[in-house]
Amino acid sequence: MTPQALVIAAILIPFAGAGLIALTRWNRNVREAVTLITALALAGVVYVILGDVMEGRAPATGAFEIAPGLELALAVEPLGMLFACIAASLWIVNSIYSIGYMRGNNEKRQTIFYVCFAIAIASTIGVAFSANLLTLFLFYELLTLSTYPLVTHRANEEAVEGGRTYLILLLGTSTVLFLPAIIATALIAGTLDFTPGGILAGKASGPVIAVLLALFMFGIGKAALMPFHRWLPAAMVAPTPVSALLHAVAVVKAGVFAVMKVVVYIFGIDLLASSGESEWLVYVAAASLLIASVVALTKDNLKARLAYSTVSQLAYVVLAAALANSLAVVGGSMHIAMHAVGKITLFFCAGAIYTAAHKTQVSELSGLGRAMPFTFAAFFVAALSIVGLPPLGGVWSKWYLALGALDAQQISMVAVLMVSSVLSLAYLLPIPFKAFFGKPADNPGPTAIKEAPLPCLIAIGVTAIACVLLFFFPTPVLELLERIDVR
């Protein structure tokens, strides 16, 4: 199969999987086997494409013109390759986890869940491999629409309300801010293609750059930059595998990926650095980063605390984009991967706690670690990775972010990163400590509560180990990111 055909196959495989999942709804074992086989097939194709990229090739498809001057096209570059690898790899693990979670909680409408999940992954790969802003925008919106049924999966009043907030904010920011930014870019630059060095240099300057940057940064609502972040906590009404999809595999990662892609390939970091028009974004991202951390401290609901943690962690990537230098680009891009692995582990653990003990509040977890030691040990490992402490992978992305801040002569941002890490310690570490060392309140003893079903534990174990491996073996990620052409 040619490289061009592989790129197309990477998008078609999960779409085909969605159809096969629907056809095999009569038998849950067959349906779930189809899900796993599809996920494995996608990962296989994505990693073959990765081999081409690492050898210096850039697989791409021809453009399909939908109207004069409007083209759909796919092209693979290192940043998109990293995002595709994250999505494809974690879909396998999330699928294994979903089997244990959905069966363990006797969730209804499981076929729809797996179908929409597959379509969401296809949309994510489309975002990752988009060759221009129009293609990215269309897959970005398809991702919103395909995840809406997942957010409202339980179909109760709370789920409907959460889904309404989710849809209004994401579609609203896209249509009111993101789409006008794309149209304005096309009119100014005469193209929407992602181009090394950007397409706006010499075409726009001063206030025009500042306005366009604001439209893009706030219009890409999936990046959850305050004040357009409310959809993310609202979406926590969804089943935990969906929360993991939102936070680690697809949705928010599509947002910060789009932010980084726009900064590197539409504006160009040289243009932003020389014009100084991104300095305001540095402070907005820093404020979002710190405020969300403080809010997380106040949340007793475990998933809500993790949701605000994600809002904070996403702001790291926006901050990296705003710093506009190659070290920050590496740090922000690496943070997409490191946060994905750490946060999916935390959500897997939250879902395991709910499945095994039906506990959702942090205040209810005292002593529970004695009944669920594996789950809370994994939570501890992932928490340390999110904080950015060795020997966990999260330390490397924060290290490069700090170097990027110093390179941009933004020493205050190094202090912001340090304060944020302390706040992360404050809202994450008490959870496993309380579980292991706290005095049980009304929790039944270890004989009454056991660990979650085996598929959940397998998934938790895999992602927790990945947090450690990314500390000792970050080189493959770095080698890929160093191929990003920032010019």
Give a short synopsis of this structure.
By secondary structure, the protein is mainly alpha-helical.
Description:
Helix content is 72%, strand content 1%. It has 487 residues and is mainly α. It has one domain. Helix 10 (251-267) packs across helix 11 (269-275). The model has no long low-confidence stretch (mean pLDDT 91).
Number of domains: 1
Number of strands: 2
- Largest sheet properties: 2 strands, antiparallel
Computed CA radius of gyration, to the nearest angstrom: 21 Å
Outline: globular
Straight-line distance between termini: 32 Å
Strand content: under 5%
Number of helices: 20
Mean pLDDT: 91
Low-confidence stretches: none
Element order, helices and strands? HHEEHHHHHHHHHHHHHHHHHH
In which order are the strands of the major sheet placed?
1-2
Give the helix/strand class: mainly alpha
Write the layout of secondary structure elements.
Blueprint: H1 3-23, H2 28-54, E1 64-67, E2 70-72, H3 78-104, H4 110-128, H5 133-151, H6 157-189, H7 207-219, H8 231-234, H9 240-249, H10 251-267, H11 269-275, H12 279-298, H13 302-323, H14 326-357, H15 373-387, H16 394-407, H17 411-428, H18 430-437, H19 454-472, H20 475-481
Task: Please give a handful of descriptors for the protein shown.
mainly alpha, 2 strands, two-stranded antiparallel sheet, single chain, 487 residues, globular, 20 helices
